[in-house]
Amino acid sequence: MGFYEAIESLLAGERLEYKSADGTTVVFESNVRVAGRLDVTIRKQSTDAIGKYDEPRHEYEGVDRAWCEMQEQALRAAGIDPEDYITI
Question: Which of 16, 25, 86 is nearest to 54 (CA)?
Answer without folding.
Answer: 25
